[in-house]
Amino acid sequence: MTQTASRKDFTAVEVGLLVAFELGWEKWRLAFATGMGQKVWQVVIPARDVLALTKAIGRAKQRFGVSESCPVFSCYEAGREGFWLDRLLRQMDVVNLVVDSSSIEVNRRARRAKTDRLDAKKLILMLLRYWSRRG
Q1: 103 in a domain, yes or no?
Q2: Is residue 127 part of a domain?
Q3: Residue range of the domain that includes 81
Q4: What is the mean pLDDT of the chain?
Q5: What are the residues whose beta carbons fall under 8 Å from the beta carbon of 104, sequence distance 6 or more?
Q6: Cα dihedral across residues 104, 107, 108, 112: positive or negative
Q7: How many domains are there within the chain?
Q8: pLDDT tens by residue, 17-51
Q9: Do 73 and 99 form a contact (C-beta atoms < 8 A)?
Q10: HSE (CB half, 13 Å, CA atoms) of 80?
Q11: CATH number for the domain including 101?
């Protein structure tokens, strides 16, 4: 018996566009999604570049086919950037969650690769689960 999965078979989150930030000193990795089971789209922008952030969110809305006025929900791991980013996102009408690094699930028994790409994907999946339960 073979099993096939459709690429369009995903559970949409009714809230809008979701974005997770993996913040680095020189660059930020943004992971975007709108539903569970959907391929996560990631982009890299220069760190602290507000214009590039605004453009990336606009491109993500186009890519996922959501309206320009749809709400945006985000999260990032508390750390170096502090809370200025949280205040900026709220000014941009983005609902933001600042995540404590110890609350991010990891398998303690398995050896875990540590890359920005994997961390961003983990954060976006946590954000998807959070909003799908609240919706």
Answers
A1: yes
A2: yes
A3: 14-134
A4: 83
A5: 77, 122, 123, 126
A6: negative
A7: 1
A8: 999 999 999 999 999 999 877 899 999 999 999 99
A9: no
A10: 10
A11: 3.30.420.40
